[in-house]
Amino acid sequence: MVRPYRFSLEEFLKLPLPERGVELLEGEIYQMAPIGPRHAYAVNRWNRLLVESFPALLVQVQGPLALAPDTYLEPDLALLHPGDYRERLPGPGDILWVVEVADASLEYDLGKKLPLYAKGGVPEVWVHDLAGGRLLLFRTPEEDHYREQIWVRPGERVAPLAFPETLLEVPW
Question: Does the domain formed by 20-169 have CATH 3.90.1570.10?
Answer without folding.
Answer: yes
